[in-house]
Amino acid sequence: MANVIVVGTQWGDEGKGKVVDIYSHDADIIARFQGGDNAGHTLVVKGEQSIFHLIPSGILHDHKVCILGNGMVINPEVLIREIDNLRERNLFPGDTKLYISENAHIIMPYHRRLDSARERHKGRTKIGTTEKGIGPAYEDKVARTGIRFCDLLNDEVFKEKLERNAEEKNFYLTELFKEEPVDSELIYRVYKGYAKRLEQYAANTSVIIKNAIEKGNNILFEGAQGCHLDVDHGTYPFVTSSNTVAGSACCGTGLGPTEIDAVVGICKAYTTRVGGGPFVTELTDETGEKIQKTGREFGAVTGRKRRCGWLDTVLVRQSARLSGITGLVVTKLDILTGIDKLKICVGYKLKNEIFTDHVPSDITQFERCQPIYEEIDGWTEDIGQARNMSELPENAGKYIKKIEELTGVKVIAVSVGAGREETITVENPFE
Ligand code: GDP
Ligand code: IMO
Ligand code: MG
């Protein structure tokens, strides 16, 4: 048995969903531990695409247990839509179990309203959030005023908390942002409906996970966002409001750190970022446009164009350190096919200082860093059919070796297409 965490090593959208779907084959439980519907995890199975925002990406396999952990912030409307959509497509078999932690926090309409109002208010300096209310929901959690799933299910507690919170949020909305207030009566009625629909899934998910471990089951933890969007370790303030590093899997599900066996870091073969914030290897030229187009780099949540650039191994090295990554999965290698000369960033230069093992904490310094590149010859052969490292063109193989050398972590799989089967597996983290 083994317990494996999957995390993004960049700024999100590395292909975590695809990898989690593949690893779910060997897992009994698949658990999300942080974030909310700011995540968009895409799977392509038998040519059919599914995008999950809240439900773990293991849901397409039969006989699995999928868990939404206590570290998440859940918009019940989005979750119900996701469940209904799966049922309509006959993709939620009766033997699949879904559990929602009673301690998970609930995203309320005022969280979304505040998120959008703040972004508008900030103007040019905005973060570029997904406007899903993620930040304001985590703020309430830390302020100890948040509404947890168990609070939503308790009529008296819910009513009282909602009234108190709505009063405070309406003050911000009307006085500071000069916007319409929210209607707490209406919210109460709508959310009671959500509670009725979702109460069947409520559970103490920490106990479920612990019991499963004792039975010798395999647990897979699905990270959302990426290491550099982590609220402590990311490119603050251009980050999300949760901890996205692997350690967060323990806090976000109620699992002890000694139970973890492997941490898999997902690393896109190049770098992308949605929203604002510095991006040292960003390409604003034709090559960047080509990668954006070929890689279909559009946000799975907001539809925004993702900014694209060369692979930045300073970012990946920092992620490997912060998450204790034991193996890397390189994704979207196929998108680099046909680019004559590939660049890999090995360090940053800032005046007389060189950064190789960490990103400067001061964002004004990070903004001014210049990339130090190594150049590698590209390849032109189609690699979509490769299922073995030896089937990759020599230069593609060298690119992978270079990533291993620069990050100090072995590559345990390479993804060469969006489909489940378009994967080269070198090592299975559950074995
Ligand atoms: P996540 O948020 O980390 O799960 O990643 P997203 O789903 O937001 O973005 C990754 C996108 O790339 C999705 O559209 C995937 O279907 C797609 N994808 C994943 N791996 C590959 C790959 O190896 N090649 C190609 N061409 N597409 C891939
Ligand atoms: P997945 O799980 C990429 C980014 C937003 C914004 C910042 C803060 O699909 O990889 P938030 O709404 O969280 O307050 O926004 O974080 N962001 C993501 N970028 N992938 C994601 O998730 C993201 N979730 C949030 O674009 O820059
Ligand atoms: Mg995504």
| Ligands bound to this protein structure | guanosine-5'-diphosphate, 6-O-phosphoryl inosine monophosphate, magnesium ion
Order of strands, main sheet, comes to 9-7-5-2-10-1-11-15-19-20
Percent strand equals 15-25%
Radius of gyration: 21 Å
Q: What distance separates the N and C termini?
A: 8 Å
Most strands sheet = 10 strands, mixed
Judged by helices, strands and strand pairing, the structural class is alpha/beta
As residue ranges, the low-confidence spans are none
Mean pLDDT: 97
Compose a concise summary of this entry.
With 431 residues, this protein is α/β, with parallel strands linked by helices.
Fold and architecture overview:
The protein has 13 helices and 20 strands. It starts with a strand and ends in a 6-residue tail after the last strand. Helix 3 crosses helix 4, helix 3 packs parallel to helix 6 (155-176) and helix 6 (155-176) packs across helix 7 (184-198). It has 431 residues and is of the alpha/beta class. The longest helix has 22 residues, at 155-176. Bound molecules: guanosine-5'-diphosphate (GDP), 6-O-phosphoryl inosine monophosphate and magnesium ion. Residues 8, 11-13, 38-41, 127-130, 132, 134-135, 224-226, 229, 240-241, 274-275, 300 line the site of 6-O-phosphoryl inosine monophosphate. Guanosine-5'-diphosphate binds next to helix 1 and strand 3.
Keywords:
alpha/beta; four-stranded mixed β-sheet; 20 strands; 20% strand; globular; binds guanosine-5'-diphosphate; binds 6-O-phosphoryl inosine monophosphate; binds magnesium ion
